[in-house]
Amino acid sequence: MILNFITCSGTNEFTDIRELVALMQEYPLGEIGVQVSEKQSPKGGARIEWIRELNAYLAEHNIAINAALHINRSWVESLCRGIVVPDLHELLELRDIYGLPMFKRLQLNFKLGRDDVREDCDDTLVELQHNIKRRFILSCNKSNERIVRSLYLKGLRFDCLYDSSFGAGIAPDSRQAPMFSDILQGYAGGISPQSVCSELGKISRATDNSATLGNIYIDAQKGLEDEQTHLSLEKCRTYLAYATRWYRNYRWGVDL
After folding, report:
1. Is the pTM higher than 0.70?
2. Based on the structure, what is the number of domains in the chain?
3. Is 119 exposed, middle or buried (0-12, 13-18, 19+ CB in 10 A)?
4. Which residue of 3, 154, 181, 186 is 20 to 30 Å from 198, comparing CA positions?
5. Residue 91 lies in a domain
6. pLDDT tens digits, residue range 243-256?
7. Are 84 and 125 contacting, i.e. CB atoms less than 8 angstroms apart?
8. The domain that contains 104 carries what CATH number?
9. Which residues form the domain of 110?
10. Is residue 77 part of a domain?
């Protein structure tokens, strides 16, 4: 098993930029996940302004970090019709210090039956990806497994994120074996600083004996929130430290 990212989802306008960037520099496997939608990121709103400030801070200090954009509600519904709304287009145009997109991964948070997403949007998403040249993340559970498999067969380039609770923050008794053999696959649901080591153990048992290249990542949000449901950088630090230590021991063959 190869751990590619330790994702801290829920970074937003309540997150101190300087402390966040310092934390990401300290833990190179760390990745931030920023939730955006017409409700979370209205034109001229605090979230978009915070993202602009983060981008400017990184440029000023000549720093690059791992960052993913998690797209929700009508913005993701529009993407499934091949439309990039103007505010989202602005975020996709942001560049890092190397001239590459600031947000290299785009998580499309759609769930058939909850969002207004056509089941035949396969070709639309493949064409959209060809135009915007960005790596997608698709959340996958039983409700949309069919369309995720169809997109894979259509040639869409994406990372697959397994979360049986679909954002509810509930950990399963065991982790799902990878559905695919050749793409990055992630695990979410019920991961916190206190549980991350045991969850990584579940994930390693699910992936080590599967027909996969073993490239995985983990994603936590609810387990990193404070009492005001904002991201706690203190909890992020513990989560990153525990996950990094577990993975180091795993690679060295230490009895876990």
Report:
1. yes
2. 1
3. exposed
4. 181
5. yes
6. 999 999 999 887 66
7. no
8. 3.20.20.70
9. 2-251
10. yes
